[in-house]
Amino acid sequence: MADQPTLLLAKSIVKSFGPTSVLKGFDLSIRSGEVHAFLGGNGAGKSTFIKIISGQHERDGGTLEFAGRELGGSAASLADTGEIAVVNQELALLPHLSVAENIAMPRMHRALGTYSERGARAIAIEALSLIDTQFARQSVGRLVGDLSLHERQLVEIARSLRSGARLLLLDEPTANLTAAETGRLFAVIRKLIAETNLAVLFVSHRMREIRQIADVCTIIRDGKTAVDRASLHAITDREIVDFMGQTVEVDQQSEANADSRSSERDTPGRSSRTGEPIRVQLSDIELDIGPGDIIGLAGAPTGPLTLIEALTGLDHKSHWKITRAGAPVKHRCPSAAARAGVGYISGDRANKGILATLPIVDNLMAAQRIVERKKLARDEEIQRGQNLLDALRIRAGSLWHLPSTLSGGTQQKILVARWLTLKPRLLVLEEPTRGVDIRTKREIYALVRKLANQGTAVVWWSTEYVELVELCDTVLAFDLSGRPTGVLRHTDVNETSLADATGMAA
Ligand SMILES: Nc1ncnc2c1ncn2[C@@H]1O[C@H](COP(=O)(O)OP(=O)(O)OP(=O)(O)O)[C@@H](O)[C@H]1O
Ligand SMILES: [Mg+2]
């Protein structure tokens, strides 16, 4: 890789949002043919930098060179050439159009002649075939709205390649994928690198993934380059975490790994754990979820979601039988469930979690208002909101800012914060550590353990087996078709047994 030319050279990039200074002279260089991991804690400025080089934000200072050309202040012109393409979490495809239309349309105005369906199809097949010929044939005629997130990502990548992309910016592309989908995405990336000499800038908070796919890394900390193009063979996990400034918590992690499962969960005041468990049943599977338990759900989304929907009042015609002390537990709707003490943190942060048009304080108080059926005096809400921000070390400019001014991981913390002071009887979490950095993960684990110790029963769905192994004493596993396959307990909860029980490799 060393002999490959530098494709992008960013020097001394500066960017502030009002009083918040995010990039303070940040440098990064990318070569053709490499997968470059871009690492840093939540709010470090990764997405901001990506938005600068993809033309979504203007920079305040610094220089950018792409393929030897100096780029002026406005990056928008660069994005328009199509050579730098970004695949965001919020995908930029039109759901009501077909895959062929989505791929062929953007550049149509440059071509002479009118739109032809056959022409579009041919263009799309050609672009998609760079990714996978079978996928090309299967997907070209389908509506984008009917595709999975993973398939839509592939379509976006195909579209950017067709537009002449030489640098692909992938900002947490795997955060919402299953392990199998991540594997397929990585295979596509490797194929493209080999065949087209593309460069990829890749953001992820999962160390294992980073090591699987990336060659080199750049680490950002406090708005500056902490590590510049380190080979991933030459840097340890420990060093990476140090450079990101997240050391302390990892010390806790190794301790936690060693003995937390047995000690932390058994020591807490037993008194808080009294009370009838909730019993969930489906065919021959039966599981009690008692106060203080942290129950993991493992497997592809379909299975765990059926149980989650039944528990949280989203599906009241569920096949799951849910009882407490022999009496059926049924919630008419999610707000009724919330008032009955069921907290729920959806995995779909953008659509079902964050209230995008309301300020941070309203986002923090949302659950409280539903449960208590009232709004507190403004002053009191602000006080409570501020306390939550402090408790979770959430960096926000002001409680009055919109959530869009927060980094992805910080938005996730807001969702968790909602339920903390309410001490729900049951808390259901879908992949709550999606997109959060290593330190914040530890914090969320600690907060959930604390709630459990105070008597909350916790149901935690994760596609990351390491996480289930660390947190849960009992895991309900589902196979790929969504059927529950069994309950694993204690020492049976390990990455191998989880992979076996779910049919999904870690
Ligand atoms: N539009 C905006 N207005 C105000 N502040 C913003 C805006 N966009 C980002 N910020 C702030 O800039 C900082 C960097 O955010 P950014 O999204 O770049 O972080 P990140 O490294 O991508 O984090 P994460 O890993 O959580 O995604 C954060 O403090 C964030 O609150
Ligand atoms: Mg980000």
TrEMBL record:
Domain (ABC transporter) ranges: 8-247, 263-505
PROSITE patterns: ABC_TRANSPORTER_2
InterPro entries the UniProt entry points to: AAA+_ATPase, ABC_carbohydrate_import_ATPase, ABC_transporter-like_ATP-bd, P-loop_NTPase
Alphabetically ordered keywords of this record: ATP-binding, Cell inner membrane, Cell membrane, Membrane, Nucleotide-binding, Repeat, Sugar transport, Transport
GO molecular-function terms, A-Z: ATP binding
Biased composition (Polar residues): 251-260
Region ranges (Disordered): 251-277
PANTHER family: CARBOHYDRATE TRANSPORT ATP-BINDING PROTEIN MG119-RELATED, GALACTOFURANOSE TRANSPORTER ATP-BINDING PROTEIN YTFR
Protein name per UniProt: Sugar ABC transporter ATP-binding protein
